[in-house]
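Subject: Phosphoserine phosphatase

B.,
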Amino acid sequence: MKPSVHLIVFLHMRLVIQGPGIGFQQLAHIHQLLGASHQQFIQVGEHAYQLAGQSEMPPTLCAFCQEQHIDVALVDDQHQLNNLGLAVMDMDSTLITIECIDEIADMQGLKPQVAAITESAMRGEIEFAESLRRRVALLQGLEASALQRVIDERLQLTPGAQAWISACKRHNIKTMLVSGGFDFFADRVKAMLDLDVAKANSLEIIDGRLTGRLLGPIVDAQAKADYLERFRQELGLRQDQVVAIGDGANDLKMMSAAGCGIAYHAKPVVQQQATYALNHVDLEGLVYLFAPLSVSSVQTCH
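Prediction pasted inline below.
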């Protein structure tokens, strides 16, 4: 959770810290900053620890963790895998490592122009629908085979994505991909991760070439939130049983519609409005962020 310059106070929280650089010295210093000398860190992952019963996160702790490239969050005790029923995720730069439209544009030698519009939209400077129309228009005339080339040559799952989805399945959490990108790629990612639902935009293709236009309504920020809400209601879930994960301004409405919004390696505007932020670990960090304390299955560290 993004701290302010003042002391943040919560009830029924657990401190979660994670990052590849955490060692004994870092744990000891965090203990000192918290004044938690009589409590023990519980190790929930190779580079992830929890400290139960915390109610505050002083600015000195936030500054130290940022300096050490450690993700830190005060997590509500209600936010546990056992309590979730639906995980809704963005695709580009969240579940996968690339922005698909930027890579398609690269096939046309237009990546810098398209990427600049993508970045502006993700920062919230341009309305998403307008930015998407501009970018797709630049692709007019591109052979549709370029889409498959992006899958074959460039599309990779984000590290930790499989671990996160596997954890969702173990806890009977439904999984939904909602993307402002394209269904050609979303359907592929859905199959790769065995997701329950995938929604995205459709590119118009005529005679084997992109026309520079889209088919049907645009999946923008409001549409993402609407898809989340519709699926939540179909499943009979409460809002607090839904988590949404994204990285750009187009994900903010979706994250607000969920009970918990996660900014994953996100733009500042998204981090400022998210419930929690992960900046240094991969998507497996979600498993540990939502892991319940279980002293029978983890190690304790002083």
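Residues 86 and 242 are 5 Å apart (CA to CA).

T.
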